[in-house]
């Protein structure tokens, strides 16, 4: 089964990062791109994984617990098995000394967090390409060494045969010396190729060393063009007059047939061009190049005939020995390796240049994005913190104009009923002014058609001073409709790009939110003012009514007292007069008792009305008076005993049991006695009113953590759970709770709550299982 190309594994990558989010993100990204990925979270585990199964590349976080990235890299570079594995460091820091240290310990590259996926992938591919190039170079070097070894062995065998066959010592010594020189030259050139990536230097050294070793007049390297012409790119000559460097040679006799032979390893060995049975055109070409004896070997790079390595004797014939031919073959192989190495190096350089360009472009994009984000945040913060519609638009226009460096920026608000747009603010460097102008949307249908449909619009219009202007208009709208627009003008005849349009749209959205918020705030302020006016009217009315009611009720009270006095006097006078015949005193007692009963009813209702009016005035005074209450030293035991004495009589009259719980030696406290009296009186009054006969009323006082804890509990009755949230409301009374129909104003508990708050305390009520407790907690100064 064939694997799709995009799923063929590109390489084995180990990710070492103690942050699971980074590890997951890198693993997902690389896996999607076809890499085989393994991930570990600490350096020790990473060392074990690498030693057991070395990866092709390692992404290594610098900052990790126990063993950091530098130490892991040093251990990997110290081991022969893992020395060549490229390591790319990951770090949240962008400090120069961090990068220097990373490369000092053997790191191949360095990535700063937060990283971009494309940057990570580009750097990984770059390092894998470098690693592949190095591997290929090592393989070529190994192959070369093998071939050198093979040739060396062949030369050794040949030397052995020559030593047997050649009887003359001088010839044998010369041959051995020549072999040694060739070996030395070959080794030197091979070493230079391994140590240098400068192709020109390698080629110039090669031709110079060969010319000196073979003692010839000229050595050159000839490079082919696509049409099989060529150029002499390097040479070494004994005299300048023999130089043909840079000369273009067009060999009319050279054809694809010769090219194919050279690709297959053909060697041209000519001791004398005039005795080699060459074609006339070939002889003429060689003679024109001042060649008498010629030894040529091909330079083949990746099955392509790249050029020729040529050794020339220019002034006389010269036979070429097998050793010289073999040396030239080996040197051509070295040149081919140098070419391949240079080609790979150029590819790496190009990859690095491309990567650097991509990084710079991406960096510029990220910087611009950060600048736009900062601009948007600045505008958002300013408009969101403002509730003045005009200042909101003024801020947005100014910041946009300066941030995008445009010639003009303005904002208009719409009157959709009149179909008009009014420019309310403008920031411009142009001579024309639009601020305060109102235009009809019908005059510019091509613009407002888009804006009213919540679409941005971009156009170019002529402008006398600067040739042309590029306009961008974005609507300001929310879910309730289009509110206005933002319009920007640029002098250059270039369009606004996508990220600029997106920024303007985001600013328009923020303006829409801020404008709607400002308008809601203005409406709310108007409503608050209206409510305050109504509240004041209510309070004024209540104060007036309470005052007007209090005066006649006081007069009524006085009149009732006078009636009682008059009635008492009339009863006394009637008792002193002699009985009228036929009428007994008992018969006269009936009308007087009725009058007494009516007066008692009238007196009770008048007292109730006075209590209501007093409670209303007290509530009003508490609500509108913020001055602190006057405090004095209070002895809790004496104060409570005096207060509860009258309630003891009332409880006895209703067959209730009043129980007092107070410490034996309570401390003296600093508080307002009138407020405390009113609080406890109202709570006891309610308890007596709603407690059935033969039940208890418990009053407890305690001091806990500088708090006066005052509790009044009555048994045998409870407040429904649905009534508890309203129990402190004005005029609220629990339905069917007053068994003796004693009535009440419905303001007592509201007054208690107000007084408790004025004293800086809190009141709570709990009612369940046949008992009700009002708990008051007040701060005190002992």
UniProtKB/TrEMBL annotation:
The protein's enzyme class: transferase
| Record domain Response regulatory: where | 12-128
Q: Which residues form the Phytochrome chromophore attachment site domain?
A: 198-334
UniProt KW Nucleus keyword: no
**Where does the record place a coiled coil?**
123-189
Q: Which reaction does it catalyse?
A: ATP + protein L-histidine = ADP + protein N-phospho-L-histidine
**Keyword Coiled coil (UniProt):** yes
Which SUPFAM superfamilies does this UniProt record tie to the protein? ATPase domain of HSP90 chaperone/DNA topoisomerase II/histidine kinase, CheY-like, GAF domain-like, Homodimeric domain of signal transducing histidine kinase
Query: Record's PROSITE patterns?
Result: HIS_KIN (PS50109), PHYTOCHROME_2 (PS50046), RESPONSE_REGULATORY (PS50110)
Q: Where is the signal peptide?
A: none
Family named by the database record: In the N-terminal section; belongs to the phytochrome family.
Protein name (record): histidine kinase
